[in-house]
Amino acid sequence: SYRRKRKRLILEENIKRKLELASTLKREGDILIKELGKQRAKEIFYLLKLDEIPDDINIKIIEEGRAFTDINPVPRLIADAVELSEKFLDDRERLTFAMKYAEYPNNRVRANVAKAIYKVKPQVALKILKEMSVSFDRWMRLSCVWACSQIKSRDAINILKKLADDGDVAVSLSAQKAFKEIESQNEKVKT
Are 140 and 163 in contact (CB under 8 A)? Predict the structure, then answer.
């Protein structure tokens, strides 16, 4: 029906605008905070309003001249918002915000949640990472490598060491590379 099509078009446009806002906040967030102050910048962050978006929508996205069709943008938007929460929210607010997505089934979202909450709740972040590291989904394991490489704690490095022996070559090589980069950074700090 016309009403259903119209509602879907409005929803698609709303999601696209939220993706644009998230992208702008990632690029210009520091300037925004400096110019408007932390509180006003936080209010702009909350315009993302993720609760209003259904999980099962596919849309066409045009990104840097390339068109992608039938993309579900919701996981990307949530992952971006969780990442942005590190910049715009204080520890308590970030923890509350990010924990809503701790069980979300998308690899990027879960990796960003673990990274975002690590400083406040390291045991919860490590639990998420350990679950991801043994997932049958290679993308979960690859995202786990990325999150561990960002966190760089002893426990995260131990997870990387285990993933360096993963049966999937991409996971194994990524974990080995991340581990070597962390070692190299640690060596530079010592000298």
Answer: no
Tell me phi and psi for residue 9, to 5 degrees. Answer: -60, -40
Is residue 116 a contact partner of residue 78, using CB atoms and an 8 Å limit? no
Tell me the CA distances in angstroms from 93 to 90, 117, 176, one per residue in order.
Answer: 5, 10, 34
Question: What pLDDT was estimated at residue 121?
Answer: 97
Structure tokens at 97: 């915000």
Please give the structure tokens belonging to residue 182.
Answer: 């962390």
Is a pLDDT exceeding 70 seen at residue 58? no
The pLDDT value recorded for residue 189 is: 72
| pLDDT tens per residue across span 117-135 | 999 999 999 999 999 999 9
Distances (CA, A) of 113 to 2, 3, 123: 39, 37, 13
Give how far Cα 78 sits from Cα of 25, 34, 96, 101, Å.
14, 24, 14, 8
Cα–Cα dist 87/84, whole Å: 5
CA gap 88, 42 in Å, rounded: 5
